[in-house]
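Work Package 3 (structural annotation) set out to generate three-dimensional models for the target panel prioritized at the project kickoff. During this period the team completed the workflow that converts sequence records into discrete structure tokens, so that structures can be stored uniformly alongside our sequence database. As a representative example, we reproduce one entry of 106 residues exactly as it appears in the project archive.
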Amino acid sequence: PSVIVNDVIPFGVVKGTRQDCALQGLNLIGLKNRGFSRETIRCLRDAYKLIFAGSPIDIVERAKQAGQKFADCGPVMELVEFITEYPERKPIFPAKRGAVPLEVAE
């Protein structure tokens, strides 16, 4: 069985195990299958890019910025609250800090 030691964000997909795991992006297939609108998915993608574009140290501040920018999008606010509610939480980050992947496999 796989073990992941850090937290996976809402709507996220992770690949790997233990310390080798990395956030692969948003679960776009799952979002579409669950009936999320294109606009909601676009907002989630834009918020994801903003939140994970920099250092893990500044993630709470970037999540707050995303919350201000996308305050009217419930799923984005769920993601923002996941990060800001418990600042000591350590979400899994994408493998490469410069590239923020968004595609996932089924």
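Residues 38-51 form the longest helix (14 residues).
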